[in-house]
Amino acid sequence: MGYYINKTESDKFNMPIRTIKERNRFLDFAKHLMVEYIAFLDEKEKRSANYRTHSAQDVRDAYSELWGNVRSWEDTLNCLRRFLINIWDCPFKLETIGGGEYVWFEFDFDSGGKWYDDDELVFIRAFAPFAEEGAFIGFEGEDNALWSYVYDGKGNYQECFPKIDWRAGFVPPSKDEGGRSDV
After folding, report:
1. Which of 36, 47, 84, 120 has its CB surrounded by the most CB atoms within 10 Å?
2. pLDDT tens digits, one per residue of 163-179
3. Torsion over CA: 77, 13, 99, 18 (sign)
4. What is the residue range of 77's domain?
5. Is 25 part of any domain?
6. pLDDT tens-digit profile of 41-84?
7. pTM, 2 dp
8. Chain-centroid distance, C-alpha 162
9. Following DSSP, what letter does each residue of the chain receive, concatenated?
């Protein structure tokens, strides 16, 4: 049993890939994400041997095989797509946008992929060193809880929760409008 979440909104949740330097930075991100996921699985396996259908070693082997076949920029994108969909089985889409100038990250919970026990945090943490200042992604939980992760552009992120002030800007209705006098 898990906790179901939906992505609500995001901004700047992408990486530019216009130049060789930007593409190399994206490649660093892709490798960093895979290494973070392997570390995540290692930690989970210490607590429960039956955590997943694949082990951290399975992922290490797939990582080596996938990166061993990268020969072009398109291979890099396809390698990360295969890792996310076939190995991690997470609800994630990776697309190029802006005429191929950006790689856009989208969490697609309708795609059939699943996340288990803080899987999304692996991606959130791995993206931090590569995120622009002001990048964020928001989620809504099955219990209507709202939260987001906001990046500072310096490798850090913060989990944020909305604050609802029901009295902010409140003007009580007059008695003539059916209001109570004790408000």
Report:
1. 84
2. 877 777 766 666 665 54
3. negative
4. 12-131
5. yes
6. 787 777 665 555 566 777 777 777 767 767 777 777 777 777 77
7. 0.71
8. 19
9. ----EEEEEEES-EEE-SSHHHHHHHHHHHHHHHHHHHHHHHHHHHH-TTSSSS-HHHHHHHHHHHHHT--SHHHHHHHHHHIIIIIS--SEEEEEETTTTEEEEEE-TTSS----TTHHHHHHHHHGGGPPTT-EEEEEETT--EEEEEE-SSS-EEEE-----TTTT--PPPGGGT--TT-
Give me the number of domains the chain comprises. 1
C-beta separation of 91 from 108 below 8 A: yes
What is the rounded CA–CA span in Å between residue 97 and residue 144?
Answer: 31
Domain assignment of residue 6, yes or no: no
Query: For tokens 């060193």, what's the residue?
Result: 129
